[in-house]
Design goal:
CATH class: Mainly Beta
Radius of gyration: 14 Å
Largest sheet: 4 strands, mixed
Number of helices: 1
Strand content: over 45%
Structural class: mainly beta
CATH architecture: Sandwich
Shape: elongated
Distance between the termini: 19 Å
CATH topology: Immunoglobulin-like
Number of strands: 7
Length: 89
């Protein structure tokens, strides 16, 4: 998935894990930013089937990869990566 944000915006981005979980539940969630990225994780939350990160900043013209790593109650670990392109809007 690719999203676009303004460098001054602080916006939320989410991953819906419900179908992949197939009855399992999220027990922990971590959002990983590329090393040296100027986009900033402001906060993050999760429920048993959905994860959310709030991102701010970033340099205009740069596309950042942001990875969500979850661990489930059943012991599974998986990642989903989103792209966030920063441009004036």
């Amino acid at each position: 998935m690719t999203f676009t944000k303004d460098p001054d915006a602080v916006l939320d981005y989410s991953v819906d894990w419900f179908l992949w979980l197939a009855g399992d539940q999220i027990s922990s969630s971590e959002w990983i930013l590329e090393q040296g990225a100027t986009i900033e994780k402001m906060t993050d939350t999760f429920t048993t089937s959905r994860t959310v990160v709030w991102l701010g900043g970033g340099d205009k013209g740069v596309t950042y990869l942001v990875t969500n790593r979850i661990v489930t109650v059943g012991g599974r670990t998986d990642d989903r990566t989103i792209s966030v392109k920063v441009e004036d809007r």
